[in-house]
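Morning. Coffee machine broken again, so started the prediction first thing and wrote up yesterday's gels while waiting. Chain of 349 residues, entered below exactly as on the submission form.
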Amino acid sequence: MPELNEILQGRRQEEANGGRDEQNHHNLLDLLKDDKNLPKLSQSKLLLVDGQNDVLPPGINSIHNYLAIRDQEENERSYFKAGAAFVLRKGRTLFGHKDAVSEFDAARERGDNAGMVKLLRQDREQRRQEDGFGSYSGAALKTGFLFGGGKIGAIGLTAVTTSDAAKPHDQFSKQALDAVLGAGKGIATTIVFNKIVDTNWSPLLKGWTVGMSNTLINTGLTSNNYINREGEVDFAFGAKKTLSSVFSPDALIVDGSSIGASFAALKPIDSYFAGALFKNPVTSKLVIAAVSGLTDGSLAEVGRQKDDPKYPSTNWLEVAKKGGEKAALDTISALPGANGMNLPRLRSK
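Came back before lunch.
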């Protein structure tokens, strides 16, 4: 294998030419497996990767570049997600897990590039766990409070949506605006949900309508959706984005697929139990939660992909996966509000 300096020189040449030498690239990946090479590699600032190794995320070509993006991601966390990350870190520490984020910051302050490189994998994985914990715990609490109902449910939901909208690193005026919009999400979601649940519609239709309503409310009351591609406030742009969240061609596919899949999966079960699944006050709420979660989760993923340049077209497998995850999470989260967990037995024909 060529010497380290030769490989790094080849790496510099690749960057200058805007291309990549496959053999030199694989030699570099092999060197990354040996810790003794880490100091020189990190100092070279040439740790260009593309997903074939996990030292740095794709598209990031140096430790300094990683730190800038890492700080930017930290600033994008809401009060709720920042709090969730803090709780997760403390919880892991109590059970003997080392805090990769703290160790990474300590190595950064020492100027220990080799130490930072060794901690990058742990740091990135821990941050993925923190983001996942913040997202799933927030969604679970929102659903739990929504289906719990009453004043406590309404106040709890509004508190979560408010804290999950405002970000501590934004200017105060932006924080205040996002907090008001976040509170509006909680209030509007509660009102619309109660109106829909009080109808005589089938639980399938109720869940489907709740899911679409949640998507419209979340999109319409998110301030960043009213900033156009030129960075200017544009209410027409925001209104169009809000409507397209449930009425774009891809969203319409989700709308039809979610109600169709729900009917195909749950109607036979309801028939087997002589209609008890849809008529029972407990299980009917769980059906509403499952269908609304499937619809809302799928629509949210379609919207996320449209805003992400990594997706030239919609990845329907990912949409189905996210929709299924949200359906399962919402069903579980709705259990406490569904008659206090006292699930009565269903009788078949």
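Residues 113-148 form the longest helix (36 residues). Going to sketch it on the whiteboard this afternoon.
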